[in-house]
Amino acid sequence: MSRLERAEELYEAVNQLIRVHQFRDRDYICCHDVSVAQCYALETLIKRGPLRLQALADEMYLDKSTTSRVVDSLLRKQYVLKLHDPDDQRAIQLSLTPSGEALYQTIHQDLISEEASMIKDVPPEVVDGALTLIRQLTIAARNRLGS
Amino acid sequence: MSRLERAEELYEAVNQLIRVHQFRDRDYICCHDVSVAQCYALETLIKRGPLRLQALADEMYLDKSTTSRVVDSLLRKQYVLKLHDPDDQRAIQLSLTPSGEALYQTIHQDLISEEASMIKDVPPEVVDGALTLIRQLTIAARNRLGS
DNA sequence: ATCACTATGTTGTTAGTAACAACTATAATG
DNA sequence: CATTATAGTTGTTACTAACAACATAGTGAT
Fold it and tell me: For the HTH marR-type domain, which residue ranges apply (chains A, B) (predicted)?
């Protein structure tokens, strides 16, 4: 199999995985109080700590304007907190409120236990292998984006 | 590592991969004459042969109403063809026009050669491994959806 | 010190994504 | 023939997301 053929198979396989995951995520997230993008913002803020708007946008591969609106909806629902940076009046630090954290934990547990059921018949060493490879692919893709 | 921990890591890794892929796909597809969803419809129609609307919707994990509109836009741009089934006046068979096929081939080649560059530093056997595992995960997820 | 430049966020606008419900028209069934 | 089921379309609503224009706040050079 040539590299091009390999690339084609991989592209196809990843695409299929993406569809299924997205479909499932919508299902699990939207019955709570937030949309998929909002949930992803919560996740990013939890995992990458307090962030400025532009930094959050970069992490999520979104435009700052889009991010601003996503954050705004979370603000109105009181899931995130805006703190003005005293050293720079333009900048804001975004972090989760306790209720934001609680909501994310609930959704996260749902999603993870679903993922766990999903892989219940896949041998652990196979999952570990997949993990490594998927990460390698992500890194390769990310490096490519930068250039 | 427990199954839950494994599930958590996997969920995170797949999510990252999805973001990067989506970001890139938008970039590569939207500079041509179609949107991401439209391109995916073209792809599905090429790969799964002529389809009815409902069948196309099922393949794409979309509602038939959403699919109807996606198809409609492709119809207006003359990339797909609607044929009424003589045996069932309600049903339509959807297929690509020559220009639809040509457009898809162009985009597809772009995407695949990008994917190929992406994996140029990843050893072939690693890609093959990832391929198998990603497919296994997709199947597991799909089975889970059905239930 | 001031004027130009840059960076941070927000708002206006536009287009694409996607579901649910209601509807029309056509089969299939009893 | 009436009832029910199926195939697609249309109305409506909400979310996703970018680009451009903007206000405001720091940064630097003269």
Answer: 7-139
